[in-house]
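notes to self, project folder thing:

trying the whole complex as one job this time. last attempt i did each chain seperately and stitching them together was a nightmare. two parts in total, labels are on each line so i dont mix them up again. if this works i'll redo the older ones the same way
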Amino acid sequence: MSTPNKPAPVTPVLTKRWLSPNSWSIRTYEQLEGYTAIRKALKGTPEQLVELVKASGLRGRGGAGFPAGVKWSFMPPNEDKPHYLVINADEGEPGTCKDIPLMMADPHSLIEGCIIASYAMRAHHCFIYVRGEALHCIRRLNAAVREAYDAGYLGKDILGSGYDLDIVVHAGAGAYICGEETALLDSLEGRRGQPRLKPPFPAAAGLYAAPTTVNNVETIASVPFIVNGGSDWFRTMGTEKSPGPKIYSISGHVTNPGQYEAPLGTTLRELLDMAGGMKDGVPLKFWTPGGSSTPMFTAEHLDVPLDFEGAAEAGSMLGTTAVMVFNETVSVPWAVMKWTQFYEHESCGKCTPCREGTYWLTGILERMVAGEGTESDIDTLLDICDNILGRSFCALGDGAVSPITSGIKYFRNEFLALCEKNRKRNPELVGAQPGVQS
Amino acid sequence: MSAESLNTGKTYGGSSVGGGPTHQETVPDVDVVKIAPVPAEHLVEEGTPDLSVFDAKTVERAEAIVARYPQSRSALLPMLHLVQSVEGRVSQAGIHFCAEQLGLTPAEVSAVATFYTMYKRKTCGEHLVSVCTNTLCAVLGGDDIYRRLGEHLGADGKRLGHNETAGEPGAPGSITLEHAECLAACDLGPVIQVNYEYFDNQTVDSAVELVDKLRNGERPAPTRGAPLRDFRTAELELAGFFPEDEAEYQAGVDGPSAAVETLRGAKLAHERGWVAPAMPDEAPLPEVQKK
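result (full assembly):
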């Protein structure tokens, strides 16, 4: 079935402990190679660890795909100011549901990753910023941190290495924008979560204007495995430019929705096969490769390799590998309207294109879905999208236009059909002079 | 210059544009609170509120939050959760309390409190029921669930709206209903949270049954999360304070999380004997030249 060097369709690495009883306890974690990677890491130097992560090709799992090792290397080598590691656990991109199960099932893998990454970046303080609505994760992480302190993995002179680290679990308060790294830092400083202008980048001036790295949960949880297995092992999965395993979250109209950890580059056809195919056999209409901010795909894209390059070449983005699957019963303009309402609600209001643009987009889409739209509304939508994309302060604006532009690109007929209904209700007055009807 | 000459409308360039009395000067004062489209009483309160609701224990907890951070202002978000655990909302008193603890102005605290969805301005019910109505959950039934719960919890033929409470807020069995954005449980949709504990794979009927039980004082078990308590206890945990009783603490931590959906990939691999490629016996850290 598979060639000798090709990994299995599902490659449990991050998810390999999830089936174990009480997988979240330190006891289970230690029985399953837990906290072996920090012993190895603390014997090496920070430079070696940065080099290792660079060589592994690990790319950020929060959506942007920036090489993690390169990001780490931006941290200054001196310690003129304290360094900080901040974990972005503010999972909220529609469709995305990988970090929350990870933190519930295996919080210690994140904690161990935090210790190694903090050591590599000379940070002595690490914050895990968890979305407030994820209370059970917050509870598990707090328990894991407490267990790690008791076991000597956190605090002063960790395992006799002379290295000190404190971890604080911090609860957010319900704002999607705080998933943007600079908004997250402002929020962690006790302010409204609004993005900052870059540069300076966080590595130069992040939390409290000190050198800071912000990494996603899944990225950091991968680090202990890379330390134990090495970069060549990590690269046995995935593709040359997108190596490693990745948790694909499949939701929507499939028979068996859930979390499937597979090598990067897996296609939707393969994922659907694992997930038991389309629910009740109703055909696929559209899907997102990585959350609502990634332009939608259709049945034409079943064989697009879902890695950073493959998704981009096909006109979308890999995002968070939040694969939302919609069947033929779902109206595209309606779905697009719902997502746009979300972006309107979550726009932080700092910049005009996003704040005003999402408001007008929502209004127009609601009108169209109510059957009151006209063909020129489609042009207006695209025009507004043009004025948001690349012109808003952060990526929220870019994300907001993705469903609209891709929806119109692939399903313009559905938008036109909504206008058709309207036209029938208000027939053109043949022969009437424009402007003279009462 | 006399007041009269100010109103002659002569500017430096000799134009009369912009001269004369302003519009505001020609109309009577407007009572903005009275004409506000939404009742605004809870936004505007005169004088310094009474902070006695925050007892010594709360002060002690506020200080413990501050001690977690290198800079005190970072304590603001958890501290707002803390005051919400006391009052079931962030009141003017709560805002003044945080401001006092952190050396901020009430305006600075207000600006933050009004930015985040989870800080409630009206007192919440014993339970907060959040229904995900983002696209994917909505397609699977979330919109229907939210609509039905609104009808079911409404009174006198009026549907209960977003952020409205059925029953006397805070009293046993009272429920605040809200529609929520994506709750990051899409593989388990449509999803509801009660006090931020997950109730997965809901239907209209199961949701109605759930709120009926809550109104009857029952505490149904979440599919993922700790044994259900109330909104204020959840807020206390968000502030970072967990049960002091060890058994109760452990019961919360050990509350279920292993949903079938969560484990599907791992289980499939286990059944079919699929594993990740084996790690080498030795994988030394790379050599780097000391700079």
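what i see at first glance: Chain A is about 40% helix and 10% strand.
need to look closer tmrw
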